[in-house]
Amino acid sequence: MKIYTKTGDQGKTSLIGGRVSKDHVRVEAYGTIDELNSFIGKAVTELDPNKFQDILKDLETIQHELFDCGGDLANVMKERKYKLQETSVEALEKRIDVLSEEVPPIKRFILPGGSPAAATLHIARTVTRRAERQVVTLMNEVEDVPGVIQKYLNRLSDYFFVAARAVNYRLNVKDVEYIRGGDVFR
Length: 186
Prior knowledge:
By secondary structure, the protein is mainly alpha-helical. The chain has helices at 25-45, 53-74, 86-102, 116-141, 147-170, and strands spanning 12-15, 18-21, 110-111, 176-177. Helices cover 59% and strands 6% of the residues. A hairpin with a 2-residue loop joins strand 1 (12-15) and strand 2 (18-21). The protein is elongated, with a radius of gyration of 18 Å.
């Protein structure tokens, strides 16, 4: 099988059950999820398996779930079964709670950065937020988008924030607090 098909040379792309313009909001949404998945892959390469086995396991699971999200968004068939389930949201919540217990409490906003892996996880967090905004736009345009995808992305950005803090904490790298604002977390 050749990697190029030439079917997209006219600015259209195939979905599961149809074709749309390559700049369609549906394509933007699952394309951003694909971009996010690549940043997760980068974060994986920056994490020492001896210190971050749990987070690496999380990230592998998340990468698979993001493929599910992309497939669910790309499916426009009349009869369809979605792959992403509410259990994925619940699993993220549990991991957020575990990692939150590990890191010191925060009082101020945290600047993205610290270690290279934490910085990459912060990039993943912001790309997740963009993907979520695009999914919300899609949900406002069409009624067939499973709400669990938006919910999952919302929770996933929280996971990346806490995971970035946990990475810095385990590496003894201090989070940098935003100093121009007051305490916002109590």
